[in-house]
């Protein structure tokens, strides 16, 4: 007995953890700073941490009430109906739900390249085919409707990541609207806003609800997560906001109790912890600016809690930085073998990462001519 043919599937490659690296190198975990997974440097919302402790004694019960309460709180946050909020086990769980609700075997899904690998992975799990549109390094990974439409061919789902991982670029809402206008009636445009809190832009939820001068739409869905700005990556909590017409679909595609009791209670506490989110966003904004100003290589502008850096040889740089105690993301798995991604850390962590990177670039002879001009264009390497 064997599983079905999984030869077209690849395992998700996550950023390396401190314990994993420390074991591999035979060193103490305290020697390392991890800036590889876009986690919150301030940890979870303090209110959420209290809620998790207080909820621990009740995890023997299914989270029916907590699930309903959090759904209502998220709906209030975005001024949508409860039925439009699909809670999930992380943002990737919400991606799975949308595939379950939309994809028939053989349908195609259009995803960005570079981009989040799980879009394609989920499509293949649900017997869909994956097609790609390219965000160009030469164009600073700019996102607009035309780039997507040039590759579009009647695909059932079209994914837009805004802010985009790993580049930090965004797509203006007017461009999302144009994309939805110029794709087929049966195409759903999914805007992944996992890093939305860090961007100085309105959410695409405005397109669903007909706000801010936009017409209300039934062909756009938005993904959000508690993993980043709220610091709850470890409890796995995300959600989709879908068109009002989709009200009946959630009950037919979700797993029983889509988010755990701990996750729901943590989310209920975190969603009102504005102070923690504001602090987190301010830290990311300062860290992005510092990296662009101080790194001796090209750093792309970012509206996420990370920065993409052109280093020439990502594998060599990431390995050497790891040896020196800073864990960053080698972006070869994104199809960017010349780039690393650095998560925005605390002020101390960011300064340490920048100093280490500059030393590594110097020691490896990988400086670029654009070191003194963060706005200069960098050729492919």
UniProtKB/TrEMBL annotation:
Residues 31-356 form the Aminotransferase class I/classII large domain. The modification N6-(pyridoxal phosphate)lysine is found at residue 228. Pathway: Amino-acid biosynthesis; L-histidine biosynthesis; L-histidine from 5-phospho-alpha-D-ribose 1-diphosphate: step 7/9. GO terms for biological process: L-histidine biosynthetic process. Keywords: Amino-acid biosynthesis, Aminotransferase, Histidine biosynthesis, Pyridoxal phosphate, Transferase. It catalyses: L-histidinol phosphate + 2-oxoglutarate = 3-(imidazol-4-yl)-2-oxopropyl phosphate + L-glutamate. InterPro entries: Aminotrans_II_pyridoxalP_BS, Aminotransferase_I/II_large, HisP_aminotrans, HistidinolP_aminotransfase, PyrdxlP-dep_Trfase, PyrdxlP-dep_Trfase_major, PyrdxlP-dep_Trfase_small. Its EC number is 2.6.1.9. It is an enzyme of class 2 (transferase). It holds the Pfam family Aminotran_1_2. GO terms for molecular function: histidinol-phosphate transaminase activity; pyridoxal phosphate binding. Belongs to the class-II pyridoxal-phosphate-dependent aminotransferase family. Histidinol-phosphate aminotransferase subfamily. This is Histidinol-phosphate aminotransferase. It comes from Natrinema zhouii. The gene is hisC.
């Amino acid at each position: 007995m064997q599983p079905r043919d999984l030869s077209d599937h690849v395992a998700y490659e996550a950023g390396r953890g401190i314990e994993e690296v420390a074991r591999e190198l035979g060193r103490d975990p305290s020697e390392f700073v991890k800036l590889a997974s876009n986690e919150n440097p301030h940890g979870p919302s303090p209110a959420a941490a209290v809620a998790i402790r207080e909820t621990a004694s009740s995890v023997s019960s299914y989270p029916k009430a907590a699930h309903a309460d959090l759904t209502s709180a998220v709906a209030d946050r975005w001024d949508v109906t409860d039925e439009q909020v699909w809670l999930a086990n992380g943002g990737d769980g919400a991606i799975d739900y949308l595939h379950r609700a939309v994809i028939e075997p053989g349908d195609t899904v259009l995803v960005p390249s570079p981009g989040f690998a799980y879009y394609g992975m989920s499509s293949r799990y649900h017997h869909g085919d994956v097609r790609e549109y390219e965000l160009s390094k030469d164009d600073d990974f700019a996102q607009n409707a035309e780039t997507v439409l040039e590759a579009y061919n009647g695909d059932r789902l079209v994914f837009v990541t805004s802010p985009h991982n790993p580049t930090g670029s965004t797509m203006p809402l007017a461009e999302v609207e144009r994309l939805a206008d110029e794709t087929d009636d049966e195409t759903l445009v999914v805007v992944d806003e996992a890093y939305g809190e860090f961007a100085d832009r309105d959410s695409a939820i405005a397109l669903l609800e007909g706000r801010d001068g936009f017409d209300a739409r039934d062909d756009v869905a938005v993904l959000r997560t508690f993993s980043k700005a709220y610091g709850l990556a470890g409890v796995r909590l995300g959600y989709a906001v879908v068109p009002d017409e989709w009200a009946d679909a959630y009950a037919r595609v979700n797993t029983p109790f889509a988010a755990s009791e701990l996750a729901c209670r943590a989310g209920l506490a975190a969603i009102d912890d504005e102070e923690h989110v504001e602090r987190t966003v301010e830290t990311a904004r300062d860290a992005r600016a510092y990296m662009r100003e101080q790194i001796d290589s090209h750093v792309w502008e970012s509206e996420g809690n990370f920065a993409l850096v052109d280093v020439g040889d990502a594998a060599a740089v990431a390995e050497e930085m790891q040896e020196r105690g800073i864990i960053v993301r080698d972006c070869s798995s994104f199809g960017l073998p010349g780039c690393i991604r650095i998560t925005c850390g605390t002020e101390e962590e960011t300064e340490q990462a920048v100093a280490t990177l500059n030393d590594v670039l110097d020691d490896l002879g990988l400086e670029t001519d654009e070191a003194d001009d963060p706005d200069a264009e960098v050729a492919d390497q």
